Each structure stands twice: as structure tokens, then as C-alpha cells.
Amino acid sequence: MSRSPRSSDSVRSAAVVNEEIRDLWQRSGGCLSPEDEEQYQRLLVEWAAATGAGARSAA
Predict the structure, then answer these.
(1) Over the Cα atoms of the chain, what is R_g?
(2) What is the count of structural domains for the chain?
(3) What is the DSSP letter of 39?
(4) The pLDDT of residue 13 is above 70
(5) Is residue 46 part of a domain?
(6) pLDDT higher for 43 or 3?
(7) Between residues 16 and 9, the one the model is more confident about
(8) Is residue 4 part of a domain?
(9) How far apart are CA 44 and CA 8, in angstroms?
(10) Going by C-beta distance under 8 Å and a sequence separation of 6 or more, which residues neighbour residue 39?
């Protein structure tokens, strides 16, 4: 089941995105199809944005 694209003004929490990542891996049986891999990559970017992983300061 493919999920609809998210609008840029709709930000989901890291926990929600993480749950979707876990669901994707479980549905795939641990072996992602090319389509699933694309979705996984999009989810990783969304998760990183939600956690602030891309905005680490060098102190």
C-alpha cells in the first residue's frame, strides 16, 4: 500500500515516521523492493528532519 506524498507544511513527529519505517521493514520481510527502497530513503530524510539530525552544531 503506497502512502500519499506529504505536503511540505505537514510535519510528522520522528516517532510517527519511525513507526512507518518499522512497518515497511516488517511488510517487506527484511528485503526491500526497489519501490520500497525509494520509500525508505524518503522516510529516512523525513525522520532526520523531524529529529534535527541534519542540524547538529559543531561545538
Answers:
(1) 13
(2) 1
(3) H
(4) yes
(5) yes
(6) 43
(7) 16
(8) no
(9) 15
(10) 2, 3, 24
